[in-house]
Design brief:
The protein is α+β, with helices and mostly antiparallel strands. The protein has a single domain (3-261), classed as 2-Layer Sandwich (Alpha-Beta Plaits), CATH 3.30.70.100. It has helices at residues 3-11, 50-60, 63-68, 94-105, 108-118, 169-186, 225-238, 241-250, and strands at 32-35, 37-45, 71-78, 81-91, 121-136, 139-142, 146-149, 157-164, 194-197, 215-222, 253-261. The strands form 2 sheets. The protein has an 8-stranded antiparallel barrel, surrounded by 5 helices. α1 packs across α8. The longest helix is centred in the last third of the chain and has 18 residues, at 169-186. The radius of gyration is 18 Å and the shape is globular.
Length: 264
């Protein structure tokens, strides 16, 4: 991947706080959530099973999980991957996740409906466990929780980008704080959402997760892909060649997912 392409991927995927949660997903959730631990869950389904799985998931695992103490923050179809289903599950803290997972997966709902979901799955191990990253006067710090504004209209697209910075995550964090954030402010962009891996031990090994110490993730929401491309161009024009080269040195590889929220 060229320097220009990698840089464009980063810029176009880090602008806006994640949203895209429909009214049905907001059931039993407060309007202003506090999330301290986040799971990005990318499932691969058996061919032709995605729509059936989505209907099953909505019927049995959205309201039930929200009521049990998790935060179902979005469910999506993945562009270019017809057999994939993507969803976001948050918790107020890692400690809350530790209490929730065994209670839910050894509880009545999962015992009743879990086998039906598993029958449609090919693989559900592509999961990243993350914690929020924020900046204060360009200095990075991890917070216990961040507040998420839920979009009840369930409009637009969500873009998630994974940046692997082999041994250079600290430089990437510094680069975002000093270079990207000032640009975002000048464009009057919405709130930025950045995440890094939660490296504490996964205390529910029945559900494996990736915990990459060199990873940064951005989550963004756009009206459509046209806006996604437009904002990309505006930001690229504002950055110097030296800044693009610096990014290219820091980031080893990127992966971008364009997600379309499931409508109610």
């Amino acid at each position: 991947m060229t320097s220009f392409t990698k840089f464009k991927v980063l810029l176009t995927a880090t602008l806006i706080y994640f949203s895209g949660t429909g009214a049905g997903l907001c059931q039993d959730l407060p309007k202003d959530l506090a999330t301290g631990a986040l799971e990005l869950r990318n499932y691969r389904l058996k061919p032709g099973k995605r729509d059936e799985f989505i209907a099953y998931f909505k019927a049995h695992f959205v309201a039930s999980q929200n009521k049990a103490g998790s935060q179902i923050l979005g469910i999506y179809r993945v562009k270019g991957a017809d057999n994939n289903f993507f969803w976001l599950r948050g918790f107020t803290s890692l400690a809350a996740r530790k209490v929730y997972l065994p209670a839910f997966y050894y509880g009545t709902v999962w015992k009743t409906f879990g086998h039906g979901a598993n029958d449609m799955l090919s693989n559900n191990d592509d999961v990243h466990l993350l914690k929020p990253l924020t900046w204060n006067d360009d200095s990075p710090y991890s917070t216990e929780r961040v507040h998420i504004n839920i979009d009840e209209n369930n409009e637009g697209i969500t873009v998630i980008t994974f940046y692997t910075c082999n041994t250079k995550l600290d430089k990437m964090i510094d680069f975002v704080g000093k270079t990207y954030l000032p640009v975002f402010k000048t464009l009057n962009s919405r709130q930025v959402s950045f995440w890094i891996s939660e490296l504490a031990e996964n205390d529910f090994p029945k559900l494996p997760v990736f915990q990459d110490k060199d990873l940064m993730v951005s989550i963004a929401h756009y009206k459509n892909e046209t806006e996604f491309k437009k904002i990309s161009g505006q930001i690229l024009q504002s950055m110097s060649a030296a800044q693009k080269d610096e990014f290219d040195d820091i980031v080893t590889k990127t992966e971008l997912l364009i997600l379309y929220p499931v409508k109610n």
